[in-house]
Amino acid sequence: MPQLRTVQTREFGASALCYAVAQELGLVELSNTYVPPAPPGRRTALAVGHDLLLAALNRATWPTSKRAFAAWYQGTVRARVVPAAAEELSRQRFWEHMDMFEEAHFAPIQAALLTRMRERFPWGEQFLVYDTTNDSPFIHTFKSRPSLPQRGRNKQKCGDLRQLSFALVVDEEQGLPLYYCCYEGHTPDVVALGASLAGMLGPFCPQHASPHLTLILDKGNVSRANFQARAKAQCSFLAAIPTGWVRQCSQGSLKAYQPLGLPDGRRVKVYAQPQARLRGTAGTLRVSFRPRFYRRQVRTLDRLQRTADQKLHTLPATIQEAVARNRPRTEQAVRRALGRGLRPDRLQDFCSPTLQLHHGGVEALRWEWERRKKRAIKQGTFGRTVLCTDRRELSDQRIVVAYRSHAKGEEMFRISKSRRPGLWWPAYHWTESTLLVHALYCFLALLLLRIVLLRL
Q: What is the CA radius of gyration of the chain?
């Protein structure tokens, strides 16, 4: 046997499997159809569609920066299937190709991709799950060049970072990502839905489409304006609404609820109200009660109460210290401190503070947690989810199961925000065009991963 001198190790399974799925969907030809080729001086052996697909494969398997893109590529089996020199995979060449993407190219690519997915993954009833999230691209606060990243209500509690909001539409049955859009980070989710609803549902609603296209929404995306926009778009809806909108219906006794078995073996209780009119929209209401959800909310309320009680115990000492210095705290200042300690609104409903005043100053503070009011809060709305839909022919089980598919959209977001393997991170991009391209190949990576999971 000849002496072994070198050994080459290449990653094979993940990239080969994802690349096979991408070939079936024709992602390279699809991108090259709508995006013009690079100028002659910037062309390489890889077309624009190849670079886009390689970026999606990188995000789906082991994300790296574009500076380490060539080293990652040489360590995979793709280097043998689609040979390319290291200089052709440099960061500069990659972004020169991605600069050929314009804002008008993204919508046709999504529509054509949706048509191909319809051919390979037949859909049943068209229930579409809509959900939103936000991601931070680490752009400096005072850098005014990109307009999409803005400071807003961050879902990861990172309020000091600019964020880019991301909306995703997922198939209810198979969990396939079907559509995405990016919008400004400071735009509330409930406002963004009404502005983009007509354009979002366009690819799903051709002239010969069934009228039973149903959009599944959570509480953060329902409003009167969105219901009106939904009526103009001529699609049905299934939405979770705040219990305060239908307080009398949601706070009824559990004796009126009927047990309901779900396909996964779990059991819930459901109360049905066939006729309802909500924010000018006629429909039907279902109030579901889950014991597990009830216990989780009770534990959360108990934990918030313990935390607030610890904060309140520090106030009497500060009040006595101020009295000892002959500078007693005013009633307004003490009530502001109480409001900060009882920041969750529900704690203020069953906490009764008592202030002892002397010449306008507070000398002592006492408080009491009223168990009867707390019990009324728990028995009133805890464990309940109010579902509203305009499709009155749906059964109770179909309504509950369809809304529970909202977890498939959340699963896609968890995958996209994971670090290893991760999709969105890292996102060190500073211009509008690069952020939009980054969102496109991250969406393609999510799609490839979901198809692979379905086949497995």
A: 27
